[in-house]
Amino acid sequence: MSKVQKLIFIVPLAILAMVVFIAVGGKIVLDLWNWLLPSLFGWHEITFWQALGILVLCRILFGGRGWHGVGRSNFRRRMKERYGHMTPEERQQFRQRMCDRFGFGPSTVASKG
Length: 113
Hints:
The chain has 2 domains: 1-64; 72-113, no CATH class.
C-alpha cells in the first residue's frame, strides 16, 4: 500500500475520530453539569453547544498550548544532549537507574526487539 493510499484511508478516519471525540466529550460535560450543578447550586441546565463551549474554555484555560507533543520535543532534545555528553559508564548507570525506577529502559527495550 502506497503512502497516498494510506493517507486516503487514514485522513477520513482521523477526522471521524476527532468528531466522535468532541461529541462524546461534549455529552459527558453536558450530563455531568446537568446532573450535578442544578441540584447543588441551583444553576440552570445547559445545552449541548454550551457544554462544548465549556469544554473549549477549559482547554484554553487549563490545557496548555497545543497537543502533548509540543512540550515534549524540548525535553527530548535536552535529554539527547545530556545523554550525548555522558561517558559510557555514566550511560550504563543512567540505563540501570531507569530500569530500576520505571521497570524499563534502553537496555530492556533493545533486548526485546
